[in-house]
Design brief:
Layout: H1 3-6, H2 11-30, H3 36-43, H4 47-75, H5 77-97, H6 102-130, H7 134-164, H8 173-186, H9 202-225, H10 230-252, H11 266-297, H12 301-328, H13 331-349, H14 373-396, H15 403-451, E1 454-455, E2 458-459, H16 466-487, H17 502-540, H18 547-554, H19 558-565
Antiparallel strand pairs: 1-2
Helix pairs in contact: 2-5, 2-6, 2-7, 2-8, 3-11, 4-5, 4-6, 4-9, 4-15, 5-6, 5-8, 6-7, 7-12, 7-19, 9-10, 9-15, 11-13, 11-14, 11-15, 11-17, 12-14, 12-19, 13-14, 13-17, 14-15, 14-19, 15-16, 15-17, 16-17, 18-19
Length: about 575
């Protein structure tokens, strides 16, 4: 049935189903955040391999999100909601079945990400389609956003608690159980569609998939072995070719995934840019905090989960205030303040030395996680101020007939920024840490080779060639990278406490110091991106009007309503 035929019918079951759908999607998206360090310790994988655990879900979600909106409009939103929940369950089951194999972990998370890519847009659209009036629609959208925020808050804590008790793999049962409940509820929901004028843009979707996958792959894999490798360069070339083809297709097709002509509007173009750069900064700080505490220092996963709750509190508490600010104050200043908060969080975190998170014996000091509380509160405040404001500016800057496309396009750009958080953030810290480890290792090996290796203070057996020892250590560092080397336990003599082999112990310290420096740079890069977004808002949005002023000038309250509820708040 079309939207006009179903509006007002079966509203409550559909509202519950939509809210549960986005809750499940957000739980699945946020779940790995607090257990990445535990996963790394358990599987012994490299930094780039660990990045793929988060990147595979995020990339799959972003790539298919726009197309799923069209599919739901044409074939029915209830069916797509059920299909998205089914895909998410399949992905999590594959993750559970192959959790000891990193490739199965990637595959499962990618499939779950495709399911989430269907759930985010469809869960909101089916609620809006059945709301009987504008006031009910606004309240429903606010409730939808609340469920999304709650999912982002509780998921890392639940997963972290399981990981603390040695059951990180079991945490993936959480979205499975929730999705089963959501399917049962969704069977009672009312179907809706809006097929008029909607067609699938298959050439655009194919070129977007190939281009973005090639870009994500090159960024992630290049961080491990260097971006000058031939296959990495080929990856970037493929990404450039297919993304250029995507732009050409979108400019010519009658029913594009993205109306690129919207970017001729200065305000819309600025919000599109800061949606990518600013949201990258936000999530890069979140992701780097997780990796810094979990994979470098090995602080308990439950403490990382608590920090994600700290991030979400501003998003939950400030939504009413942000809605009022969008109406009464120029979004130029709301966005600027938000990005300044994110930038301050990044600069603050960039000052942390990993050594200060260890106790006197060099073991992780769990209580040290409190150092991140204030930066994460600032990051959460910045997110709360910016995410709804970006959409409000995008919608208010285009004609009313294009408001839906403007919102969808902004959602895509924002989610792409989110996907870049772990991908580009991981690329930065991995490449810097690995280069610093290689440079330090070369110097250490030269010195050790001149002085001779020792075992418990005694010279190495002269029958063992020094070159063999040096080659083995170099292979260990290059093969696993700084993250893997840092996680290798140091074998010591139980009587004296001295390391059995002096050089691996120095190698461990070198990896630890390299990672500490690399994350300082990553936090700083995120801060610079956030401050750059603030500058763009000050300069590019000069003269932008509040939502109330725009609504009065246009003689309609539609934009006022959409901007006020900040309908696509999407904390992670």
């Amino acid at each position: 049935m079309s939207d006009a035929q179903v509006r007002g019918g079966g509203y409550i079951p559909t509202l519950i189903a939509g809210c549960l759908g986005v809750f499940v999607a957000q739980v699945a998206y946020s779940l790995p955040a607090s257990v990445l360090g535990t996963i790394q310790l358990d599987l012994g994988i490299s930094g780039s391999q660990l990045t793929w655990v988060s990147a595979s879900f995020a990339a799959a979600m972003v790539i298919f999100e726009l197309t799923f909106g069209v599919v739901g409009d044409i074939f029915g939103r209830k069916q797509l909601l059920l299909g998205g929940l089914g895909l998410l369950i399949l992905g999590e089951v594959i993750t559970l079945a192959g959790a000891s194999n990193v490739h199965a972990l990637w595959t499962g998370q990618a499939i779950a990400g495709i399911g989430a890519g269907a759930l985010y847009p469809i869960s909101l659209t089916m609620i809006a389609a059945l709301a009987p009036d504008a006031v009910t629609r606004a309240r429903s959208i606010a409730l939808w956003a609340g469920f999304l925020s709650i999912g982002a808050a509780v998921s890392p804590i639940a997963a972290g608690s399981l990981a603390e008790n040695g059951h990180w793999k079991d945490s993936f049962w959480i979205p499975v159980a929730l999705a089963v409940v959501a399917i049962i509820v969704a069977l009672k929901a009312t179907n809706s569609s809006a097929p008029e004028g909607r067609t699938l843009d298959l050439p655009g979707q194919v070129t977007l998939v190939i281009g973005l996958l090639a870009l994500v792959w090159a960024l992630t894999e290049g961080s491990q072995g260097g971006y000058g490798q031939r296959d990495i360069v080929v990856g970037f070339v493929i990404a450039a070719v297919f993304l250029a083809a995507f732009v050409a297709i979108e400019l010519r097709t009658a029913s594009p995934l993205v109306h690129l002509n919207l970017f001729a509007n200065r305000s819309f173009a600025i919000t599109g840019i800061v949606a990518i750069i600013g949201m990258f900064a936000y999530l890069a700080i979140c992701f780097s905090m997780t990796m810094f505490l979990g994979t470098v220092i090995h602080i308990g996963a439950v403490y990382i989960g608590l920090l994600f709750l700290v991030i979400q509190i501003p998003a939950l508490l400030l939504v009413p205030l942000v809605a009022k600010l969008i109406h009464s104050v120029s979004p130029q200043w709301v966005l600027t303040l938000g990005f300044l908060c994110i930038g301050a969080a990044g600069f603050w975190a960039s000052r942390f030395d990993a050594h200060s998170f260890l106790d006197a014996h060099g073991a992780p000091h769990d209580a040290a996680f409190v150092k991140f509380i204030v930066p994460m509160i600032l990051n959460g405040i910045g997110f709360a101020l910016t995410v709804g404001s970006i959409t409000a500016v995008a919608i208010n800057s285009v004609p009313l007939r294009l408001a839906g496309m403007a919102s969808a396009t902004t959602n895509l750009l924002r989610d792409f920024g989110f996907a870049l958080g772990p991908v580009l953030g991981g690329a930065i810290y991995n490449s810097i840490a690995n280069r610093k480890l290689d440079a330090g290792l070369d110097a250490a090996l030269d010195k050790a080779g001149q002085q001779g290796f020792t075992v418990l203070g005694q010279p190495l057996d002269p029958h063992v060639p020094t070159e063999s020892v040096m080659g083995a250590l170099h292979g260990l560092a290059q093969g696993g990278g700084s993250v893997a080397v840092n996680s290798v336990p140091v074998l010591t003599d139980p009587k004296t406490g001295k390391p059995f082999v002096d050089m691996p112990f120095a190698l461990h310290d070198l990896a630890f110091s390299s990672l500490s420096h690399a994350f300082n740079v990553t936090f700083l890069a995120a801060a610079i991106c956030a401050l750059g977004s603030a500058v763009l808002c000050v300069v590019g949005l000069a003269g932008a009007k509040s939502a109330s002023a725009e609504a009065v000038e246009l003689g309609t309250d539609v934009l006022h309503e959409v901007a006020g509820v900040a309908e696509d708040v999407a904390p992670v």
